[in-house]
Every structure is written in C-alpha cells, then in structure tokens.
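Researcher: We plan to redesign the surface later, but first we want a full-length starting point. Tokens attached.
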C-alpha cells in the first residue's frame, strides 16, 4: 500500500517524454508560430538546436525530461493575452497524470533511493502513529488553532495565490511571475487528482473518528475525505516546491514557501485531522509533483529575462547597481 501511495515519487528522464507529450498536445502545438524548446536527443555528430543553457540544467531533483513549456515566446502578454497559455493546460494535465501513475514502471535507478527513503519513513510512522498520537499534547485551544491555521492550505486559498501570480505577471510583463502562476495551477491539478485517488483507495480513519486507531479501509467518512495522505500537506508542498524551483536564486522565497507549507502541516496535526504517517507522504508526494511539473514546463529562456525592477535600476546609473 505504501508503494502505491508513493507512485508520484519516481519519474523517468526517458527520451520518449517529448514524443509522448507532443502527440498529446499536437492540436495546440500545431498552432504555435514559435517552436517550443523541447529536449531532443541529438544524433551522433549533430549539434543540437536550442541547447539548454547550463544554468538551467539539473534543477529538477528527478532529472525530468523537458516537455512543452508553459510559457512560450508566442505567449508573451503583448502578443496573445491572458488566456492563451491555458489552452494547453488540459493536455498538460492528462500527460502529467499518465506520467505520475505509470512512474513505478519507468523509474530510473538513481531515483530508487527516493522510494526507499520516503517509503521506509512512511511505513515507520504508520507503525508508530498510535504512540505518537497518545504522546502528543491535546486540548481544545490547540485543536481550535489548528483548524484555523489549516485554511491557508485549502484549495480555495492556494488556487487564488497561483491566479494572482499569473495575473500580476501578465499585467506587468513579469514572465517569471506569470510562469510561476501557471506551473502552480498545473501542479495543483496533478496533486489534487493523486490525493483524491489515493484517499479513496486507502480509506484510512482520521484521528477524530470514534475509537480511531488509524486503520485503513475503515473510515466512517466518505472515502474521498479519508486521512491518508494529507491533502493539505500535499497541496501546500506542491505549491512550495514550484515557488522554490522558480526562485531558486532567492533564499528568502524558499524559506517563506517551506515555512508556509510546514505551518499548514503542523496545523493539521494540532487539529487532530491527520496522523504523522499521513502528512509525511502527502508533503513528499506534493514536493515531487512540483519538481516534476517544473522540470517539464519551465522555459529556460525566462531565466535570462530581467525583472521590471532590474530594468529600472539598469537605467538609473545613479543608483550604483549593475545587472
């Protein structure tokens, strides 16, 4: 069961990734005037076109093969408006789910360690959940605070965050803002589908259920609302992963993103809505889904684009800054 729940952890860097996605997105791609920077394996002696800048390589921990970018040159706001990139989103979501659910069959050897680490840790926590729950402090005030601080991890909070970044980026021509919003939206779709599917299959009791011992296939709640894995943990770490990857050069962004996600996880435990064995796999699967989506959709051309602030400073020598 743990192996099934960890299905989102391993992804391959198969040379077939680009071919598969091109087929799934053919209707959309055929309308693009500017070709996407899809990673292709060059033939011997051939110089690859559109090589990936060295600074853009290996930011995905899973070494995910690149696919169609979420933001293409054609999609710049002044050319195609707010909604154009969303035309590819349904096809992206379908490809993502296929890659996630078939990942056990094409996991690279170098990624097996992630299965071992998080699979073993999840199994250990599930075995110890009752002891942890009995030893954890509990009172009505703590539970109340935990429920209140769970709201920032709900979909109705996270989706507007993604939308805000996309709209601000579109209005101000900040393409990294815009891509962050798009990738966050796509990753949240992927994590929501995985979360609901795994919850429905495992049907684990929540700590709040009467005489709950955390048994699987025994929840009195609707199956889609069972305890394993934590949906709040999965979705907040999905968002945090996308932000941390996009702003890999901003330490304060990564600290803020993971502090946000960690606070939501703590709130779910304090509210007695989840066992420790629910939040770890949720957070891990969410993080790796964010890593996967970033690896597939990030457009490295955006790494060289300066922000509006940088452009302003560049035209104001008196400030004494150089970019």
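Model: Full-length starting sequence:
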């Amino acid at each position: 069961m743990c192996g099934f729940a960890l299905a989102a952890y391993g992804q391959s860097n198969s040379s077939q990734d680009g071919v598969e996605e091109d087929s799934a997105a053919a209707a959309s791609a055929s309308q693009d005037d500017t070709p996407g920077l899809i990673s292709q394996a060059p033939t011997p002696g051939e110089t690859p076109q559109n090589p990936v800048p060295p600074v853009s390589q290996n930011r995905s921990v899973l070494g995910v093969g690149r696919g169609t970018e979420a933001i293409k040159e054609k999609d710049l706001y002044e050319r195609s408006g707010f909604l154009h990139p969303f035309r590819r989103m349904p096809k992206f979501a379908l490809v993502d789910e296929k890659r996630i659910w078939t990942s056990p069959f094409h996991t690279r050897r170098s990624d097996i360690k992630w299965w071992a680490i998080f699979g073993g840790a999840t199994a250990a926590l599930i075995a110890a959940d009752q002891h942890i729950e009995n030893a954890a402090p509990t009172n009505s005030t703590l539970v109340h605070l935990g429920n209140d601080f769970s709201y920032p991890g709900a979909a109705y909070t996270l989706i507007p965050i993604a939308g805000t970044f996309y709209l601000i980026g579109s209005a101000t021509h900040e393409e990294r803002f815009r891509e962050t919003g798009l990738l966050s939206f796509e990753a949240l779709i992927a994590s929501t589908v995985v979360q609901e599917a795994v919850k429905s299959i495992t049907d684990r009791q929540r700590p709040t259920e009467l005489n709950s011992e955390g048994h699987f296939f025994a929840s009195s709640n609707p199956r889609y609302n069972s305890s394993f894995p934590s949906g709040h943990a999965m979705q907040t770490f999905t968002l945090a992963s996308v932000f941390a990857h996009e702003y890999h050069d901003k330490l304060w962004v990564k600290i803020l993103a993971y502090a946000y996600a960690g606070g939501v996880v703590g709130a779910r435990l304090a509210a007695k809505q989840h066992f420790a064995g629910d939040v770890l796999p949720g957070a891990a699967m969410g993080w790796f889904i964010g890593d996967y989506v970033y690896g597939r959709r990030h457009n490295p051309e955006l790494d060289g684009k300066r922000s509006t602030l940088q452009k302003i400073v560049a035209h104001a020598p008196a400030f004494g800054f150089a970019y």
